[in-house]
Amino acid sequence: MSENIKLFDISKCTGCRGCQLACKQWNQLRAKQTRMRGTYQNPPDLQPNTYLIMRFQEVEDSKGLRWYYRHQACMHCSDAACVKVCPSGALYYSAFNTVGLSHEKCIACKECVSACPFDIPRFDERTDKIYKCDMCESRIANNLEPACVKACPTGALKWGDKDRLVKAAYKRAKELGDGAYVYGDKFVDGTHLVYVLQEKPGMYAALPKSPSVPLSIVLWKDVLKPLSILAAGGVLAGSFFHYIIHGPKTPDEDTSTKTEGGE
Amino acid sequence: MTNHWIDIRNSDVILIMGSNPAANHPIAFKWITAAMEKGAKLICVDPRFTQSASKAHIYAPLRSGTDIAFLGGMIKYILDNNLIHEEYVKNYTNATFLVNPAFKLPGDNKGVFSGLQGKKYDKATWSYQTDGSGRIKKDMSMKNPNCVFQLLKKHYDRYNVDVVMRITGTPKEKLIEVYKEYASTYKPDKVANILYAMGWTQHTVGTQNIRTMCIIQLLLGNMGVAGGGVQAMRGESNVQGSTDAGLLFHIWPGYLGAPTASLKTLKEFNEKRTPKTKEPNSLNWWKNFPKYSASFLRAMYGKNATLEEAYSYMPKLDDGANYSWLMIFDQMYKEKFTGFFAWGMNPACSGAHSNKVRQALTKLDWLVNVNLFDNETGSFWRGPGMDPKKIKTEVFMLPCASSVEKEGSISNSGRWMQWRYKAVNPPGVALPDADIMNELYYKLKELYEKDGGPLKEAVLKMTWNYGKKDAAGRVHHIDPHAIAREINGFFLEDKKVENPTKKGEFKEFKKGDPVPTFAWLQDDGSTSSGTWIYCGSYADKGNMAARRGTKDPSGIGLYPEWAWAWPVNRRIIYNGASVDLKGKPWDVKCPVIVWDGSKWVGDVPDGVGDPGAGRPPFIMKPDGVASIFGPGLADGPFPEHYEPLECPVEQNLLSPQKSNPVIVRFDEPGVGSDIDTYSGVTSCDPRYPFICSTYRVSEHWQTGVLTRWCPWLAEMQPGMFVEMSRELAKERGISNGEKVIVKSPRGEVEATAIVTPRFKPFNIDGNIIHQVGIPWHFGWITQPRAKSRYGPNDKRPEVFTAGDAANLLTPTIGDANTMIPESKAFMVNVVKKGVK
User: How far apart are CA A199 and CA A72, in angstroms?
Assistant: First the structure.
C-alpha cells in the first residue's frame, strides 16, 4: 500500500475555516464558550475538544502586508516523539504510518505533551485522557480523505501519495519563489502533514524552526530503554503511594486555562 | 451573474471589488484559484485588507463610497490609451448613437445631468437623435461630439488620476497598476472578470457602481465571453431564485414590471411595458411581454377568470409610490400597518436603523414570525429597552422546515436551478413554508367566502392545484413538483402553434402539455406559465433541475447537463457577443459558441442570428446593443461620483453637487419619521468622525439566526467586533481586544476592538481619514446577559455570542434606483468603553 500524506499549501488557503469545522463535525467535538479577543483565531489554541485550528497571523515589513492562515494539527511524524515516550501504547503508528491514539490505553501520564516538538497533544483533566488529530483514521481506513481535506474549497489541503505530493510541494514552492519552501519532509523522518510555506522558518507563530525528537527522549528510549521497564514498576508504585497520601488529582490553574478556551 | 461560478476559471484577470469572496463566498475561490494556477492575475480593491486581498497579486485600498471615482479613472485610462475593443464597441454597444444635443453632462451643469427638477430628473434630453423614419442616428467613426463615445470621453476626462487619488485615498501608483492590469484585457483573446456583492450595492450610488463596471467590460469587449461578464455574488443561496420569482415589490415573476394604478386595463399595461424599436435588425425580445404577462395571469387564475378580469384582481402600485424595505418600516413606524409576517426574515437586526424597526414593531397589533429559531424580531417585546407591559403587539411563532427538511429547488448566483431532496422530517410541528401558506390560503378563502370583502375574487378565483386533493377539493400538503410544473407552464387548451424558430412548421399541443420553452408562450390566454424565464425547466423531459450529468463537451466548464440554467439552459448570457460580425469567436482558444457551417454549437446561443445576418446580439435591449449610455436609471445615463450621504469630506472634488441629487431623504418634511437622523450631510460632524462599513465573516450568515445557534460556528466567531487601524487605536487609546462602543446618531453597539494593520488611515486630499468596519451577524437574543430574558422552556444557545445588531448604527438612506440602504459608508464614533 502506498503511503499517503496531507499537504497544506498556505498560498492557497483563504482562512475560511471549513477544515476546522469539518474536524469538529467528523470527530463530534463539542464547542466551548469562547470570546472575541481581538483576532479571528478561535478557539485560541488547540484543546482537548479542538484537534485542528487555523492560526491567523499578520506580517508587515518592507515587503508589505501579508495575512496568513496556518492549518495547525498533528504533524504525524514518522519518528514520533510521542509514540516513543508513550509507556502504554496509547499512541501508536497506524497501518497508514500516521500516529494513532487509543483512549482506552491512555494512562494520563502526559509524557507525550512534553515530548512533542510541535506542542500538539492536549490533556483533558475531566476525562484524564490525551486528545489530538488522528488523521481521521476511521475515514482513511475506508479510502476517504481526512474530513478537513474533504471540506477545503480551494485545494490548499490535499491528501494523497507521499512521493507525488512531496514532489508537487517542491514544484509549487519553486513556482511561488520568493523564499517559499517545503516544511516537514526533512525532519523526524518526515511528517505526514507537509506544508508549503511562504515565509522564512521561525516567522510563523507556534511553528518550530527545526523540530526534532528531544535528545533526552532519544537517550532514554534508545540508549536506556532496557532500564525503563524496571523503572516503570517504580513509577507505578510511586503513583500509588502518591494517591494514598495526596488523594485524587484536581485541575491546576495552568491546564484549566488551556482547556476552557478563550476565557 | 452573467456567467457562472465554474466559468471564473477561464479569466485572465479577476477583479474583486465590493466583495470579499474568500470569507463570504468561499467556493468562489475554488475557481479563482484554478484561474490563478493557469496564470490569471487577481486584483482586490477594498477599504480593508481582507482575506481576499491576502490572496491578490495587487491590493489597492479605497475609501468606502468612492468606487465610481476609482472606476471612472479606469474608463479615462482606457480611453486615453485607446485600449478599447473597437469592433465590439462599435457594433455591440450604443457608443455610436447620437444623443440629443440639448443633453448636458455634470461637468457643464454644476454636477448634475440636464433635466433635474427638484429631486427628480426630467429625462427629455437623455434621448437619441433620430432620422425621419424614427431610426437612431449613428456615427460609426465615433467622432461626432454628440455620439455616446465622445460624451463618455468628455464625461470621464474629469476623472484624472490626481483627482481620483484625492477622492479615493488610493495611492496613485496603485491606481495605475490596477488600471494597467485590468485594461490589458482589451485584446480579443484576453478576458477580465469582476466579482461584486453588497460592497457595491449598499450605497446611495449602488446601481451606478455596477453600471460603471458594465461600461468598462463593454469597452474591453469582456461581455458575453467565457471568463468575462459581471458577476453578482448572491448573499443567500436562493436570492437569485426569489428575485426571479418576483419577491420584490416592483416586479412580477420573471422581471415583468408590476402594474401601477393608472394602468387600468391589461392592454394599457402591456402597451406601457412593451418596448418598441425602429432599428431594423433588432430582435427586441421584450416585444413578447404580452405573452409573458398573459401566461402569468393564467398561472394565477387559470380559466377561472378572463385575462382582463385576472389583471383587475392583481394588486396595483400607486403611481410614483415606493414599497421597498425602508418605506415599509417607515409606514409601520407611522402606524399604517396592523399586522406583519416576518417570514424567514429578522428585520430587528437586518433592517437599517434597527432601533426604528424595533420601535415600528411595537405599533403592530399582531406579528407572525416564521422561522427556524426565535429571533430578535419575534422576541422584540422583551429586547433591550422594551417594557413588555407597554407593548400591545401579539406575536405568533410558526416554526418552519429548514432547507434539508423539504424538497424543492434553489437558483444559485449562476442562475442554475438545482433540485434538492428532503433528507429528514422537520422537527415537532414545524412545516415547510409552502404548507404554512397552504393553511393560510384555505383560511383566507373560508373567511372571504363567509364574510366577503373588497376584491374577494382575487383570492376566491385563484387556482390552487398544488397537490393531491381530498373529497372536498382541499390540498393538505403542497407538492413542490406541482409548483415547479406551474412555474414552467402548460397549455390550457388543445392548440396548433407555429414553431417560433421555423416559419411554416406547426406543432400540435394537447391541453395540459408542458410548454417546451418561452418562445412557445401565447398572449391569447392559451398558455399558463408562472415565471416565463423558467419555461423549459420542467417540460417534456421532466424535472431538468434534478439533472446531474457531468459531461462538458465544450471544455470550458459549461456542464450543460448539470441542473438547468435560465434562460433556456444558457450558461453564459449575452454569448452572441462572443463572436465577431462574421460569427468567428473573438477568442478561438476559449469559444462559447461556434458556427459549424449549419448551426451554433457550444452554449445555447444568445441573440445571435446566422453568421453575417447583422442581428445585434443584446436582444433584451430594444435597440439590440448594450448600453454605455443608459438613460433608464433615475440618477443619470452615465455614472457620476457623488459622496455618500454621510461622509467625512466637506465637498465633492469633482463638482459642487455633494451627494446623489435624486435620493429620498428621510429627514425631509413629509418623508420619514422623527426618528430618522443623519450626521455629516452638509458639513462634517466632529461627533462622528470615522467612516464605517458593515460586512460579514465566513462563520455567520445574515443576522446569524441560523448560525448563532450553531455552537461550532459561535465558538469560532463569538461576538461583535470592530476592526480599526493601529493609528486610530493609538489616537483613541484603545488596545487590541478591549471593549469599545461604536456610536452613530441612531444608536450604539458594544464591540471588541481588533486593532490591525489591515486597516490603514486614508489620505483624502491632505486630510487623514479613518475607516472602521463591523460584522452584522449579531443580536441580543444569543447574548449571555439575555439569560434573564429566557423563559423556562426557551432554547438557550450552547455557546453564547456577544453584541447586538450592527444595523442599530446604519442610516435610513437608500440607493436612488433600488432603495437598498447605504450600509457600506456611514459615519460613526468609536470610544473605549466607559470613556465619554
Answer: 16
